[in-house]
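Human: We require from you a protein record containing the residue sequence and its fold in C-alpha cell form, and nothing else.

Assistant:
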Amino acid sequence: GYELALAGETLRFEAPDGKTFKCLDIAVNSLKKGGLYPAVMNAANEKAVELFLNDKIAFLDIADIVENTVNKIKISTDSVDIDAVMSADRLAREYVMESVGDLVCKQL
C-alpha cells in the first residue's frame, strides 16, 4: 500500500483491485500502449457511459465494451496530432455503436 502524510494525518491507500475496477486496468494498459490508445479508450468509455445513462446497456457492460474496443481497434501509435486523435475518437465511438448492436441483439 501507500501512505500520505497530510495535515498531521496519515492516509493509507491499498493497491486498486483490477478485477473489481476493470476500467482502471484498461486505462493503465492504454497508457502503456501509448500513441492514440488513450484517446480510443476515453472515447469508448464516454460512449459506453452515454449508452448506460440512456438505458441501452447495463452498468457492468461498460468495462467489457471499453476493453473490447481498445483490443479490436488497430491504430498507429506514431502520429498523435489533433487530426489523428479526432479520427481515433470517431473510430472508437463508431465501433462501440456497432458492437452494442450485437450486444443488444444477444440480450433479446
Remarks:
- The mean pLDDT is 90.
- DSSP finds four helices and two strands in the chain.
- The radius of gyration is 17 Å.
- Strands lie at 2-6, 9-13.
